[in-house]
Amino acid sequence: MKLTLLALSLALTTSHALAADPGAAALTTIGEVNGIALACQQPAIVSRARNAVATTAPKTRANGEIFEEASNASFLDFGNSQKTCPDTATLVKRLNDAEQSLSAAFAAK
């Protein structure tokens, strides 16, 4: 139990530190959109989100993990909370915004 609490505490501390970084925040946002697109069976949006990360963010393990963890959490949350899928236009708008944030975050780096 103590080990689980310690691991959870460490994970939360790490995620808060990463959220302060604009690049990590942008990767998290696009990962969240990706998770929703996966849950809503929108393969074109999934493909576009992954392509945006692959072509915009530096190819590091940390960046990949941020994106994948956000995608997984979003996918699981969407299914567990039994949310209704947004329409395609809404999801595309969220992806457009996430891509702009991603580009801005990594343009200066």
* Overall number of structural domains: 1
Q: Can you write the helix and strand succession as a string?
A: HHHHH
Q: For the CA atoms, what is the radius of gyration?
A: 14 Å
Mean pLDDT: 87
The number of helical elements comes to 5
Unreliable stretches = 1-8, 13-18
The total beta strand count reads 0
How large is the share of residues in beta strands? under 5%
Measure the end-to-end span.
41 Å
Taken from the alpha-carbon principal axes, the silhouette is: globular
Task: Describe, in plain words, how this protein is organized in 3D.
This protein is an all-alpha fold and 109 residues long. It has one domain (22-107). It is 83% helix and 0% strand. The protein contains five helices and no strands. The chain starts with a helix and ends with a helix. Mean pLDDT is 87; it is low at 1-8 and 13-18.
Key attributes of the depicted protein:
109 residues; 83% helix; disordered N terminus; mainly alpha
Summarize the structure.
The protein has 109 residues and is mainly alpha-helical. The chain has helices at 2-19, 22-39, 43-56, 61-80, 88-107. The longest helix is centred in the middle third of the chain and has 20 residues, at 61-80.
Set out the fold topology.
Elements: H1 2-19, H2 22-39, H3 43-56, H4 61-80, H5 88-107
Helix pairs in contact: 2-3, 2-4, 2-5, 3-5
